[in-house]
Amino acid sequence: MSKKHILTYLVGHVRVVCGDWHGGLEAARRAVFPMSRRQGCFPHLIGATTRPALWEDEGGNVQHMYRSGIFARLREALVDQEHLALLKQYIYFTRHCPKGLFAGLWANMVAYLENHGERRAVQLLNGRYLFRSLA
What is the arithmetic mean of pLDDT over 56-63? Predict the structure, then answer.
């Protein structure tokens, strides 16, 4: 099979492309593999590719100040910061779930957040991190 035939085949058959949440890579994925969807890179998702800054709170406890990734965005979006710890555990817990279980668990989490007035966090999750097609 020639290179041209292989590329033509791939364009129509690639369904998932791993991405690191960078806009340029996402634009390239849509242009080259229009039938695909993005599979987020977990280290980039959680901001593990950059070191978090550390700071001490009033009680002398060392805290992480997330500079990138989903946790930094959620910290800005959440009304009740106690939900951040819950979401952090949920993100790690659901990471390896099968698609159907993942979709069900996250549908419940989104409903929980909506019921607790976390509209901005729900918009962030649905707009950038979750795919409605999983449900």
Answer: 72
